[in-house]
Amino acid sequence: MLQNIRVVLVNTSHPGNIGGAARAMKNMGLSRLVLVDPLDFPSVEAVTRASGAGDILDNARVVATLEEALVGCNLVFGTSARERRIPWPLLDPRESAKSAVEHVQQAGEVALVFGREYAGLTNEELQRCHFHVHIPADPAFSSLNLATAVQVLTYEVRMAWLAVQGMPTKMAKVESTAMLNTQPVTMDELEQFYGQLEGTLIQIGFLDPAKPRHLMTRLRRLYGRCGISKLEMNILRGILTETQKAVRGELNKRSDS
Predict the structure, then answer these.
(1) DSSP secondary structure string for all residues of 32-57
(2) Residue 32 pairs with which residues in a beta bridge?
(3) Structurally, how many domains does the chain consist of?
(4) Which residues of the chain have pLDDT under 70?
(5) Are residues 182 and 85 in the same domain?
(6) CATH code of the domain containing 114
(7) For position 174, what pLDDT does the model report?
(8) 54, 97, 145, 217: most buried, per Cβ within 10 A?
(9) Rg of the Cα trace of the chain?
(10) Are residues 37 and 137 in the same domain?
(11) Distance between CA atoms of residues 171 and 163, nearest Å
């Protein structure tokens, strides 16, 4: 589906931006790059900035005009940071991405068009687009780097694509100790813990065995409703063990003095 979305860069002056755009595309699963009359391409700088996305540069199509770049497209989005005298249908990146993905679901061809670094797209070029896309950056500093603008739009395209595919937009981090972290402790392990906990509390003077005041009962109720895993139990037992060592060390110091 994403192969039906092409990124079109018009009259790019800095080859590094072409490489940066290619990298942004590959990050988000897009592969079709069309360059309209680039000032410096192919270029070593473009390959360097692509940083592993050289295949997109190798397969990039170079054409002389925007009209050639849009052949076969039936939905075109042109990025614009400036207000125009004649209002044009305007979308933000999220809206445009949703529309683009819906269109390619029907086997349509979509183009995301980006203009020159110093001036963007001309009015005539924008009039060849069905929609203008405006990235709502801070008005006090709204000029985005070309590759950054490509990253923003292609990211939104990927998010929209993941949504229609029913795929997750985030991956859960799996701990290296995942098995221990999912296994609940057994009752005998809990009893061993309670025994060590009670002994430690007596050792540090927090629990008076002559006047327990239901402390262990309350602690049993507290830990019992926590759903402790084996990994968490190992941590708790380790804390108690180190506490006991510290207490013994302090008592030995006092006896030596």
Answers:
(1) EEEEES-SS-S-HHHHHHHTT-HHHH
(2) 6
(3) 2
(4) 82-87, 172-180, 257
(5) no
(6) 3.40.1280.10
(7) 57
(8) 97
(9) 31
(10) yes
(11) 14
